[in-house]
Amino acid sequence: MLEVEKCQLAYPERVCYQLYRYLGQQVDYRMFLRGQDSSYVFYSVANEQRIRQLFDDMAPKILLDRTAADMTATHPDDLREIRNAQEDLDGWKHLFYQPVYCPVFGVGDKIAVFDHVHGELRFFTASGQALSSLPISYHLQENWGREVLLDEITGKFYTVFATKQGKQLNEIQRSDGSLGEPVLIKSNTIRKLGVLNGILYFLEENKDAIFGYTFLRLKKIKIGLG
Length: 226
Hints:
Among the domains are: 50-96, no CATH class; 142-226, no CATH class. The chain contains three helices and 15 strands. It is 17% helix and 45% strand. The radius of gyration is 21 Å and the shape is globular. By secondary structure, it is of the alpha+beta class.
């Protein structure tokens, strides 16, 4: 039940990876030393309640493992039946076991981890030594978009909420974890967001009025001083 994410942070002497376990209900932040056969976990986040539920739910279904099913099926109809059951199981896991969202960012000479399981924003040194933490609670709002953005120029963090008219962007205050004033984007066809040097960039899906094909248009909104 181990899933490896791409490299998240890279430094001259080490690189940081996120490793997901238990269908994404636990994430380890592991630092690998360059040129050495060694690594260490400097922080770990686990949704323990979901992990316990996972084992209760998955124990009767563990025989649906794809490899074991392929090796034991003796007839194409048997294999088809097992594969159909496996697809149902995959859908069930997707619906009920959404991975924890705890992104990691490099900010100057520090590492920031957004622990949305325990409601904390944690800061570490570049080597993973704990520095400080502060409480966050915006992720408890029902319309939270499960997205945190970093402006790599200003070092400011932002998070996204869904609204009836489109999207709402708020700065996450690094002093106390509260939210700044909202920036409203009145569009329901936004496909991607990014912030750089105090400017919000986003792709908006549009439809050609004559031919009817869809296309993406890059737009931007100034949201703060660079």
